[in-house]
Design a protein that fits this description.
single chain; 174 residues; alpha+beta; Alpha-D-Glucose-1,6-Bisphosphate, Chain A, domain 4; seven-stranded antiparallel β-sheet; 26% helix
């Protein structure tokens, strides 16, 4: 898929928006209308290396599972996620959140997403409505993100680590 770009202005300081987006567990809150069944890939959900596996709610999608990992973090400026989806996880994805200061105490958030289908069949499936579906759903997600950060409502369910809280290993006797 050619890069798709969304821009939105959020009436919050850039630092607050960055802190929210750098925690990948928060992404489930504003994308839960089309991305469900989030499973975090490690205990630390913030910053470089944080990742999640999830399921896309797309009609007639035979291979709905995907994953994303934060690979680059420039504090208060940019967050880069890479991932894979599709059959045998062969479709590579790239998502970039860019935060720029806006007028007053606002933040201009730009999200760019692109995918690289590996085979002809993957490109065909993507061309049969995948781009339009993704644009609609991600546009709504960006509006929900703004609503959550500005007004505090519209929050979805935040994923947790399976198995409950972790206990420190120090002092444990074998």
């Amino acid at each position: 898929m050619d890069p798709v770009t969304f821009s939105i202005t959020i009436a919050r300081p850039r630092e607050q928006v960055f802190e929210y987006l750098a925690d990948i567990a928060n992404h489930a809150e504003f994308t839960d209308h089309y991305i469900v069944d989030w499973h975090l890939t490690r205990e630390d959900t913030y910053g470089h290396g944080a990742g999640a596996r999830y399921k896309l709610k797309m009609r007639f999608n035979r291979f709905p599972w995907g994953e994303s990992t934060i690979v680059d973090v420039e504090p208060h400026r940019r967050i880069v996620e890479v991932g894979r989806t599709g059959k045998f996880n062969r479709v590579r994805t790239l998502g970039v959140y860019t935060l720029d200061p806006g007028p007053g105490n606002t933040t201009r958030l730009t999200f760019t997403f692109e995918s690289r289908p590996k085979t002809l069949s993957d490109r065909l499936l993507e061309s049969l409505g995948g781009r339009g579906w993704f644009k609609r759903k991600t546009g709504r997600a960006m509006r929900r993100l703004r609503s959550i950060l500005e007004e505090g409502h519209g929050r979805g369910k935040r994923p947790t680590i399976a198995g409950g809280p972790r206990k420190p290993a120090t002092g444990f006797r074998i």
